[in-house]
Specification:
Layout: H1 3-15, H2 19-35, H3 39-55, E1 70-73, H4 86-100, H5 102-106, E2 115-119, H6 126-136, E3 141-144, H7 146-149, H8 156-170, E4 174-177, H9 181-184, H10 194-209, E5 215-220, E6 236-239, H11 245-255, H12 277-293, H13 301-315
Parallel strand pairs: 2-5, 2-6, 3-4, 4-5
Antiparallel strand pairs: 1-3
Protein name: ATPase family associated with various cellular activities (AAA)
InterPro entries: AAA+_ATPase, AAA_ATPase_domain, ATPase_AAA_core, P-loop_NTPase
Organism: Chryseobacterium taichungense
Length: about 325
């Protein structure tokens, strides 16, 4: 991108009241200057942006009707921190690339991927992905609390959904619908109630009409439970699985890096069984805590193995 295009993008984002877009373009300029060897200029731009982040008031007040329904987070995790198969990281990178260059796509009447469905077992990186996208794109992460969204009163849930999608239009961000099964279930199921079918129909209408600059992410632990009409409303579906042997070893090495000389990682793999990414990380933390609190207990394979077996017993009886 030429310097003139950077300036035009900055001006557009300013007058369109798009502060997040302004910051994204500024970071692109910093990267461009760094490639040219202008490290002082690049560092100066990054310093200004970092200071602005520190002083920026992120906790904006929501309308009274939405209080308690939305949780705002300021994620600080990068794609580099994620241990996942190449195809998942590639899809996340594609979402980021398309978002950053969405103006270029629009010149050709194309839209960037904005509506994403993430499916897979608990603890495999779905919520982490939403945090990564928000951080990489310098956007706030808003989590929609589905258990607070769904009520027993006729029409109330659909009304709340309408307010959520109005907010998505007005305030750019990454909007995470966690435990999406609560409203996204198959409409033809015999045990479904009429109110939930109406809620799902409302969601289908709102997401299809949405033309905002926000990212909408829905998470489910089992996509088989979802209504088939949902899938064509999403621009991309990313499927997550339990870690393979290579990922298990990488997770152990990553979490226990400070003790790597004392551990034979491959010897631990047969005992991990069906633990998720999150569960393996928790087992590593358990082992580290044990060595910190008990100075007579050095880090070794037996200690980690005990933590892994405890986690297996807790989650996979």
């Amino acid at each position: 991108m030429a310097k003139a295009e950077y300036i035009i993008s900055l001006i557009k984002s300013h007058y369109n009241n798009e502060p997040e877009r302004f910051t994204t373009v500024a970071l692109q300029i910093a990267a461009h200057e760094a490639k040219l060897g202008h490290t002082f200029v690049a560092d100066e731009i990054k310093t200004i942006i970092d200071k602005a982040k520190e002083t920026k008031q992120r906790n904006k007040v929501f309308s009274p009707d939405l209080q308690g329904l939305i949780q705002e987070n300021v994620p600080a995790v990068n794609l580099f921190d994620m241990i996942a198969p190449h195809d998942i990281k590639s899809k996340i990178n594609r979402i980021i690339s398309e978002f950053v260059q969405r103006d270029k796509l629009r010149k050709h009447d194309l839209e960037n991927r904005r509506k994403i469905l993430l499916s897979g077992p608990p603890g495999t990186g779905k919520t982490l992905t939403a945090s990564i996208l928000a951080n990489e794109l310098n956007l706030p992460l808003y989590t929609i609390l589905m258990d607070k969204m769904v009520t027993k009163f006729m029409g109330e849930t659909s009304a709340k959904l309408r307010q959520i999608f109005d907010l998505i239009e007005q305030r750019q961000g990454v909007y995470l619908f966690d435990e999406f099964d609560a409203i996204g279930g198959e409409r033809s199921r015999d045990n479904d109630v009429g109110e939930m079918r109406r809620v799902l129909n409302s969601f289908l209408q709102f997401i299809e009409r949405d033309n905002s600059d926000s990212l909408i992410i829905a998470i489910t632990n089992n996509k088989e439970l979802l209504d088939q009409a949902l899938f064509r409303r999403f621009d991309d579906v990313i499927l997550y699985n339990l870690p393979n042997l290579e990922e298990k070893e990488e997770l152990l090495k990553n979490r226990l890096a400070q003790f790597s000389k004392k551990i034979k990682f491959k010897d631990l793999l047969p005992d991990i069984n069906g633990l998720s990414h999150a569960e393996i990380s928790l087992a590593c933390i358990d082992a580290i805590k044990e060595t910190v609190l008990n100075e007579k207990q050095p880090m070794n394979n037996q200690l980690i193995l005990k933590a892994i077996k405890d986690r297996n017993a807790a989650y996979h009886k």
